[in-house]
Amino acid sequence: MSTGTFTRPAPAPARRAFPRTGGLAWTVLRVHRAALWSWTAFVVFTAGLLLWLLGPGANASQRAFDTYGYYPPGGVDSDKYAYDSLFHAPATLIALATFVVPLFAGSALIGRELESGTARLVWAQSVAPARWLAARLTVPAVLITAGTTLLVVLYRILWAAHSGLLIAGFAPRALYFSIGPATVALPLLGLAVGALTGLLMRRALPALGVAAGIQYLITAFRDRLWPLQRNPVYGALPDLSVHGGALTSGGTLIRDPYCYGDRKCADRHGIVGYTREYLPSPDYWPRQLLETGVLLALTAIVVAVAFAVLNRRVTAA
Hints:
4-stranded antiparallel β-sheet
């Protein structure tokens, strides 16, 4: 009886392990968890404020309005005045968050990792530089889009339901930039600009300063992008009005003294009507959609330039 010789099979060639995209995303979240928690807290707080304005705050303001009108005898009702002030607070918070995004992208997200050498260490561990940058742009972009979309939807619901409760009857210009799709696109452009700044500067603090300057210029240009129209208003106020004045019987335009519902006040100033500078309602969606398209196109261009700069840096190294 013969026995065959047992031959152990040759081991399979070891496969080179590449980090998965999910692993890169998890790394971004873990490294920048402070920014993640800060963004989550901001969205939760702002959403809570909007829900309060939509519910309990609006109910208290409506009771004051039903009792006194715009102004009660002897001055502005405290509940109504507080509601009017808080109504515009989310617009300020959203604008502030939008300004902070490129600062974070330029300094902590990109600049600090290049300055400390962390990025090159990751690249040496079989993570392609392009995948590294893609993960650092995609993860915050998803979180920013989800958070700002939620806030914009809540703000639009609030504006549609309770804009008539505002004391002055008109909204500041900032509100126009807080209840449309362009509000979601602008921080994405800021994220791209911050990332490109970090790649070019390769140092956290200089990148932060340059990103702040660029974002300020973008915001200032955007604020003056659309011309206002001025029309006399003798009845209901137009949607999305921005600045107001009062017309006297002699045809003089004066600063609005806020005499709504107070005939004696209007007679004392000789007011026969009001003017409002505003973004006309029929033009709102075409303007917003055009602006959104421009912002997204600029974002795509800046991202493409950022990848080109990264590729050039890696090739030259």
